[in-house]
Design brief:
With about 90 residues, the protein is an alpha+beta fold. About 40% of the residues lie in helices and about 15% in strands. The strands form 2 sheets. It has a two-stranded antiparallel sheet with strand order 1-2.
Length: about 90
């Protein structure tokens, strides 16, 4: 019984940390935050790529990608990827 109680406490702590703590930022595709999602967020580093939906810079290996008409698109979040997939012609240039 003591083991079950310990497991439940650990699971609750893990859930809270992933939902509201450091894990909440990892869901977005980067760990630096997402200030003002409507424009460019964190400072752009070398080799970063602009998200076609919100304009945020995406570091290599971060975020989400999609192959579309022979081109690889990079997105800062799943929300931006979903918006692109809903209206790809709007964001292609």
């Amino acid at each position: 019984m003591h083991g079950l109680l310990s497991l439940l406490l650990f699971a609750a702590f893990f859930y809270l940390m992933m939902r509201f703590g450091c894990g909440a930022h990892a869901v977005h595709g980067n760990q630096r935050g997402h200030e003002g999602h409507g424009g460019v967020g964190a400072a752009a580093g070398e080799g970063s790529i602009k998200d076609p939906v919100c304009g945020m810079r995406v570091e290599p290996g971060q975020g989400y990608t999609k192959n579309d008409e022979g081109r690889v698109w990079h997105f800062c979040s799943l929300t931006c990827l979903d918006k692109f997939e809903a209206e790809p012609q709007r964001y292609r240039s």
